[in-house]
Write a structure and sequence with these properties.
The chain is 50% helix and 11% strand. By secondary structure, it is mainly alpha-helical. It has one domain (5-65). The chain has a two-stranded antiparallel ribbon. Bound molecules: zinc ion. The site of zinc ion has 7 residues, from helix 1.
């Protein structure tokens, strides 16, 4: 059975309750990226390239680790 990928916008440092729940990790990342560029564009764009990379890396980390609510991949 495929595990669900869960990622919270809040976990990436933004202040809202957006959550992505997807079976496919790449789609989950894409949806979160779309959300960030739509709702947090201004916030995201003033970040340095390094900080933007950090957010992308954090997405990978969150998806690999699971969200701590019982969804884990190990
Ligand atoms: Zn958000």
């Amino acid at each position: 059975m495929a595990k669900l990928q869960i990622m919270k916008c809040r976990d990436l440092g933004f202040n809202d309750d957006f959550i992505v729940i997807e079976q496919d990790r790449e789609i989950a990342k894409k949806k979160m990226m779309d959300h960030i560029l739509e709702k947090h564009k201004a916030e995201f764009e003033i970040l340095s390239e390094m900080h933007q990379e950090e957010i992308r890396a954090k997405m990978d980390f969150l998806l690999t680790r699971g969200c701590g609510c019982g969804v884990k991949e190990l």
